[in-house]
Amino acid sequence: MARFMPLDQAVRENLRDGDVAAFEGFTHLIPTAAAHEAIRQVFRDLTLIRMTPDVVYDQMVGMGMARKLVFSYAGNPGVGLLRRVRDAVENGWPHVIEVEEHSHAAMANAYEAGAAGLPCAVFRGYRGAGLPEVNPNIRNVTCPFTGEVLAAVPAVRPDVTFIHAQKADRKGNVLIEGIIGIQKEAVLAAKRAVVTVEEVVDSFDGLHPNLCILPHWTVTAISVVPGGAHPSYTHGYYARDNASYLEWDEIAADRDRFRTWMEEHVMKAKPEDFAGRVAKLRVA
Amino acid sequence: MNEQSFTPNEMMTIAASRALTSEDVCFVGIGAPSAACNVARLTHAPDITLIYESGTIGTAPDVLPLSIGDGELCDTALTTVSVPEMFRYWLQGGRITIGFLGAAQLDKYGNINTTVIGDYHKPKTRLPGGGGAPEIATSSQQVYITMAQSKRGMVEKIDFYTSFGHGDGGDHRKRLGIETEGPTLLITDLAIWKPDPETKEFTVVSLHPGVTREMVQETCGWRVKFAEQLDETPPPTELELKTLRDLKARTDAAHKGTDSPAAKRGSKDG
Q: Can you name the CATH fold of B8-264?
C-alpha cells in the first residue's frame, strides 16, 4: 500500500547497505532526486542494476556506493563514456567494482521474468556474441519442443526499485506516460518500490483506459519531487537538459572536480532544489 | 577533381540514406545511422518505419535526437511501447528488415566491438557496451553498418565481439544457427562496401567522388579488396544536401537550448 512521505524518509525506510537496487529510467524519467538522496545518506556495498546506467550511476559509483554494477549500456547518452564508471573499472577508483554485463534484450527479458515471478528469462539472443564468455550468468536452455538452443539469464529481483513518474492520484496510484521504458517491470519485479512524482492529482477518472498505471498496492512509498528527473526529462512537464549531460563529461573527467561538484550540488542540496533546475526547461 | 561542395561525412550519410526504402522497418542506432535514416525519410523514403530501442515505432523527429530516448521521438511516433515489448515482439519477432548500426571497432567480416579496447577484464578503455546491438545484429533481417574510416576503427582483429557479423567469414552464421543475413552493406566516408558472396569479406564496390583506392587502404587496418567492377558513388543531389544540412541546423539549434557554455559546443554525435 503506497504511503506518501518526504523523499529522505522514503529512501531511509527502503534502502539498506548491501541491497540490490534498481534506479530505472530509459533516458526518460530517470530518478535523479532519489539517487541523490541515496548518495546523501551514504549507503555502501550496493548492487546497482540498470539497463542504461548514466550520470546518476556514474555519481554513485564515483562516491564509492557500489559493490557491483549490472547493466547493458554504460554510456552518457548522446555524449560518450561514463568517466567515473571507467575509472572504477580501469583503475579501481575509488574502489574495485564487480561488473555483470548483458545486452538490452537480456536485461529487458530479465526484468520481465522478475515481474512474472519466473526464476529466469529465455530468449533468442547473444548468438555469436562475446559476453557469454565473460559473464557466467549467461547460459543456454534447449527448447523441449523444437530443440532450439536459446539464451537464458537469471530474473532480476531487486530488493528495491526507484522510479520517477508523472503523477500519482490521492490514493497513490501512479501514472507513467511517454517512453515508459522498463519501469513497470522494474517495480513489479522488486520487493519494495519507491516512486517520485511531479504532482498529485485528485483522481485518474476519465483518462484513456490503456494508460500505464501502477496500482497503489504495488508501490511502497511515494514522494512528490517536482523536477526530480533532471537532467533527464519528464514527458509533458519539462525537456531534457542536454547541456547538463555535456557538462557532466567535463566534471566527471577529473576526480577532484567530481568530488567538489558532488559536495556542492548533491551533498549540500535538497530534493526541493530540483524544481528550480527545471524552471527554464518547462514545456508550455 | 575540383574542390567538392560536400564533406566526406555528408557523402557517407547520404550514401547510407539511399540504401533505405519506404518499405523498410529500420531499427536505428544513434549517431551516424540516425542521420542517414532521417535523411531517407525526408527525401526518397517517406513511408519508412523508423524504430528506436526506447520503444518508439514509426517515429518522425523534426530534429535528430541526442539520445535514443529523446522526447521528440515519442512525440512524433505512431506508438511507443515498453522496452521488453520492443525487444521481444518487434526485434526478436522478426519484424525488423534493417538493423542500422555504427561501430567503434569493425573487422572485415562485419563483426563489431563497442565494449572494450584491450582485455575485457583489464580494459585499456572501457566503452559503453552493446546495448541493443547483439540482438539487432542477429534478429534483424539484414544489417547495415556506417562509420568513418580510420585505422583505429577498421582493424584486422577486434578486441571483443560485441555483436556478431559474419564471424570468421563464409557460412559461420549458418553454423551458429543464425538464419538472418547479417551485415550486407557498409557505408564509410570514402566508399560503399558489400560482403563477398562466398567469403563474406567486405569488398569495396563503389568509391565516393574524388576518392582513390589508396585513400581507402590508408585508412583501413586490413588489406582492402576491391570489386572488379568498381563504381563511383553519385555525388549528393541538391535536395539531399539541403535536407541533411537543414536537419543538422535544426538539430544544433534545438540542442543549444540553454545558456551553459558546454551546450554551445553542440552535440558530439549525429
A: Glutaconate Coenzyme A-transferase (3.40.1080)
